[in-house]
Amino acid sequence: MGLDWTASSIAAAVHDGRCAPLALCDHVDARIDRVEPDIGAFLERCADHARDSARGVDQRVPGERPTLAGVPIALKDNICTTFAKTTCASRILADYRSPYDATVVDRLLRAGALIVGKTNLDEFAMGSSNENSGFHPTRNPWRPDCVPGGSSGGSVAAVASGMVPVALGSDTGGSIRLPAAFCGVVGLKPSYGRVSRYGLVAYGSSLDQIGPIARDVTDVAMVLQVIAGRDERDATSVDEPVPDYRRALEDAALAGCAKTLRIGLPRAYFGDGLHPEVRAAIEAAVEVYRARGATVVEVDMPHAQHVVAVYYLIATAEASSNLARYDGVHYGHRTKSPQNLVDLYAQSRADGFGAEVKRRIMLGTFALSSGYYDAYYDKALRARRLVKDDFDRAFEQVDVLLGPTAPTPAFRFGEKTADPLQMYLADVYTISANLAGVPAISIPCGLSAEGLPIGLQLMGPLFSEERLLQVARLFEQETDWHQRRPPIWAGDGE
Ligand code: GLN
Question: Of 73, 204, 426, 493, which has the fewest beta carbons less than 10 angstroms from its beta carbon?
Answer without folding.
Answer: 493
